[in-house]
Amino acid sequence: MGKTIDLSGKRFGRWSVLKQTDPPQDWEHRGTWWLCQCDCGIKRPVYGNSLRSGTSRSCGCLHSEISSEQMSGKNHPMYRHGQAREGQRSKEWRTWNSMIRRCIYPSMKSYPHYGGRGIKICQRWLDSFEDFLIDVGYAPSEKHSLDRIDNNGNYEPGNVRWATNSEQIKNSRRARIITFQGRAQNIMDWAQEVGINRQTIQMRLDHYGWSIHDALTKPARR
User: Fold this and answer.
1) Full 3-state SS string of the chain
2) pLDDT score, position 113
3) What does pLDDT average to over the chain?
4) pLDDT value of residue 166
5) Domain segments of the chain: what residues?
6) What is the pLDDT of residues 22-40, one digit of tens each?
């Protein structure tokens, strides 16, 4: 099991985390629970995953306040203004949730490439999906995904955009320069020169920890 991340003193929506606590009696969820205080004054144990995923953002008072026509039902930002089936989470919400998971949870397969190498999320976006949506906006299409302009920078205003896969590849070309045998060029150019797929080279370097020499010279398996 991964090390429990201390949430004491952090905010998630209207919840202020006070301390780690025992789960409610007879509760089936395994995991860490936190005693939280809502801005309205109510204190309650909250499941840690519910805080991180944005499922729980208040004691229930927030839901009451956003029950107007503009922010309720299919019109809530979580549901893409009625373009998704009722109850289906929007692309923007799924993107926000995935961003948090790969930067926060060591158990996630993609964690080593994000949180594991120091990529962080600004507190404003950690606390609120709505604030993330205000800053980033809606995805232009289902083909767009979240891209960090500076590949070594954090998830924060000014360093993210919605981009297509081809746009992200171009961005990674500019950011990833490899020096081999006295020459420096981007990873795509090396892939074309040595006849090895770009993704294979990246996996060898980032996932398997190969040297640049081995990553560029060892034939790929068929």
Assistant:
1) CCCCCCCCCCEECCEEEEEEECCCCCCCCCCCEEEEEECCCCEEEEEHHHHHHCCCCCCCHHHHHCCCCCCCHHHCHHHHHHCCCCCCCCHHHHHHHHHHHHHHCCCCCCHHHCHHHCCCECHHHHHCHHHHHHHHCCCCCCCCEEEECCCCCCECCCCEEEECHHHHHHHHHHHCEEEECCEEEEHHHHHHHHCCCHHHHHHHHHHCCCCHHHHHHCCCCC
2) 87
3) 77
4) 67
5) 1-65, 68-139+158-162, 167-217
6) 877 656 556 788 999 988 8
Strand partners, 161: 147
State the virtual CA torsion across 20, 23, 29, 35 in degrees, nearest 10.
-40
Per-residue pLDDT tens digits for 94-132: 898 899 889 888 888 888 889 898 899 888 888 778 778
